[in-house]
Amino acid sequence: MSVRTLPLLFLNLGGEMLYILDQRLRAQNIPGDKARKVLNDIISTMFNRKFMEELFKPQELYSKKALRTVYERLAHASIMKLNQASMDKLYDLMTMAFKYQVLLCPRPKDVLLVTFNHLDTIKGFIQDSPTILQQVDETFQQLTEIYGGLSAGEFQLIRQTLLIFFQDLHIRVSMFLKDKVQNNNGRFVLPVSGPVPWGTEVPGLIRMFNNKGEEVKRIEFKHGGNYVPAPKEGSFELYGDRVLKLGTNMYSVNRPVETHMSGSSKNLASRTQESIAPNPLAKEELNFLARLMGGMEIKKPSGPEPGFRLNLFTTDEEEEQAALTRPEELSYEVINIQATQDQQRSEELARIMGEFEIMEQPRLSTSKGDDLLAMMDEL
Question: Less CB within 10 Å around the terminal CB: N or C of the chain?
Answer without folding.
Answer: N
